[in-house]
Amino acid sequence: MSDSGSPRVTRLLPDAVHQAVKPGTAIVRLQTTHDRRGILDGAWWPCSRDIAAELPALVSALTEYLGPVTRVGLDAGAWDALPTRLLVDDRVVHIDSFPVGDDTVLVTRGDQDHFSLLVIPPHATPQAARIAMAEAVRADNITQAEQILIDTGTDRAAPQT
Question: What gap in Å lies between CA 42 and CA 105, rounded to an integer?
Fold first, then answer.
């Protein structure tokens, strides 16, 4: 029998960037605090620009720790073909796309709870991604996503070879 008066325990996402990456897993850091003073709530490092391949792992990871994700907002120019919805774990996740160029993804849990995540470009080195993710989850971070990527050498455009 559960006590409905007991405080709810908030689970934080693990710092997966330091763990071995397995196919189908998301590399994500999220600062889950009650005091959301920073500009960003976390960071995500997808392996490619194929949203249909990348988004299910992110949504599954976030759902496990935060509850059902209902909507995701993406920068239209940062991804290959964008569907308007995806089925993830037998749930429909609506996808909104905007030509904003802000290097973020906006995740909606429930009706109004939003999380803004820095998107680390797939070509980033592990060291640069780790530094950018650490900056994004700093509670007092006031640096915009684009500037974090510039400062860490992980600009959106893939390096020229």
Answer: 10
Contact between 125 and 86 under an 8 Å Cβ cutoff? The reply is no
Residue with token string 């709530």: 41
d(CA 117, CA 151) in angstroms, rounded, equals: 17
Q: What is the phi-psi region of residue 115: left when phi exceeds 0, alpha when psi lies from -120 to 50, beta otherwise?
A: beta
Helices (H), 3-143: 51-66, 126-137
For 27-67, the pLDDT digits (tens) are 776 665 556 567 888 889 999 999 999 999 899 888 887 88
* Paired residues of 69 in beta bridges: 109
Q: What is the pTM of this model?
A: 0.77
E runs forming strands in the chain: 28-30, 42-44, 69-75, 85-88, 91-98, 104-109, 113-119
Between β-strands 91-98 and 69-75, what pairing exists: parallel, antiparallel or unpaired? parallel
Q: SS3 of 70, please?
A: strand
